[in-house]
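Please check this record.
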Amino acid sequence: MSYLTEWITSIILFILLATVVEMLLPNSSMQKYTKLVIGLLLIVVILTPILKLLSTDMDELFAKMTTHSSYTSKENTENLIEMKKKEIQASHAAYILNKAAVLMKEDVEEELRESYGLTVKDLQIVVKNEDQLTEMPIEENIESVVILLEQAEETAIQVVKPVQIDTSRQKEPAPSSREEGKIANFLADRWQLQPTNISVAVEGGD
């Protein structure tokens, strides 16, 4: 691109210089020969890239083009392989995490329903170096577990008891807020994790 710019600049400068020379020349028979010389020089300037190309060793030029093309093709192939490799690793890690989440959910779901009246709506596992995950995560790999619970569907209609409102008592925290700590301890004990690594949220709670 720079060579093309330089070539066009040379042509423009030569035309400007030739115009100035032509204006300075007196009207005489020499003016005709001067124009002829200027015209020949302009042709030489225009044909400069072609003359340079003809003076270049064509074998060397083709060798450079072939080498550059091969290097570029090899580099693109390596980049494509590396990109595919990362995609496969990410897909494999996502599959492992999804499978681990299903197993952890199945492990606690029954007791959650019976003891707390809750079911697991969503469970996400965050691990260290997820892109390098090749097997089921263990405690050392798990950074946190985020679990979202929701009220279990009741199979029978419960009898509604009379409600008594005592305005003299202070407002108590919602049951879900009080139970989240107990649920986190229960899950930590079942999954062999630290309670601080488990984040419990109850849909509809505080």
Observations:
- The first strand starts at residue 118 and ends at 127.
